[in-house]
Amino acid sequence: MPDKKGPLDGVRVLDLTEFIFGPYATQTLGDLGADVIKIENPGGDRQRHGSKFAKHEDMGATFMTMNRNKRSVTLDLKAEADREKLRALIPTAQVFIHNVRADAMARLGFSYEEVARINPHIVYVHCVGYGSDGPYAGRQAFDDLVQAASGAADLLPRVDGNEDMRLLPSFIADKVSSMHALSSTLAALYHQKATGEGQFVEVPMFECFTHFMLIEHLYGETFEPPVSHMGHTPALANDRRPLKCKDGHICIQPVSRAASAKFMELGGIPDAYESDRFKNAPKGGRVAVYYAMQREAAMAHTVEEWMKLGDEHRIPIMRANGLDAVLDDPHLKAVGFFETRAHPTEGGWRTIKPPVKFSKTPASIRLDPPRPGQDTKEIVGG
Questions:
Q1: pTM value surpassing 0.90
Q2: Quick one: pLDDT at residue 1?
Q3: Are residues 192 and 60 in the same domain?
């Protein structure tokens, strides 16, 4: 198994991305076997910095989680000698990806047209904030800004009644948009393999994340004329949350009324739907009674007891891990989800294994996150 190569073995990626939107995508290309050459300016990817806990200031925690399986080349693209080194690499690559503003890249001499003149077969991927044909084109974009514009900051107020708009506590727009960049790159590589043609691919963060957001939340506006409001009602239910049990929390999602009734029976509330409490609830109040009974039933057992009962009675039940507890989740431990490795300069570090399995061409972790420019001499010379 270790000597098998990933599905993208033989693909070279010139990666000029930094921060999160871009590096997360190119790391996955590397996991899949691509030779990812990270082109950094002399100061390095700005995501390298800002971690108090790193052994070296340029090897911050978030950088470490998104830059394995890459080789680092430091080039000052404001200098003609270094621009020439990058031009020399372009014919060797199948993918050129960056998240630099289009006008800045053109001034450096690496617009799509200029890169395609050197390598007509290149897949040129531009990760942008906003699509080039809209009025926001060229504006700066970061996760917070895109969450705000997409409507994501309006979700929590719809759940908890606090009218203050709030961002989701994750750089989710960056990561979702990176997955769009990944799938788009793979699709363009498929076309390149089939036809020999390269092409320009624009991946706009605002459009990608809003697309992701509105899959369920377009809701009543799906139809024309609209039949209801925006915002998926079940997804935004205030009671859609883990339940406290004897020694922790569980989450349940009964797939039928019978499964829900069985859960409450196992929790000491038999015939819940036939109870006076449920039947005599005021108009519109049965939902509140239903969730109250769920909360009471959950307290009857421990997490492990509920896990076993759910398995035995085919009720979808899962432990609700605190963030720290994810590291000790028994399933993740069994599948080897986390791997502790020895970095040449940073010492022990924990990484997350590629989650997707390939029977013939497995994804793998081959290279630890690079120090700035550590591969410059090998790849482009001194």
A1: yes
A2: 43
A3: yes
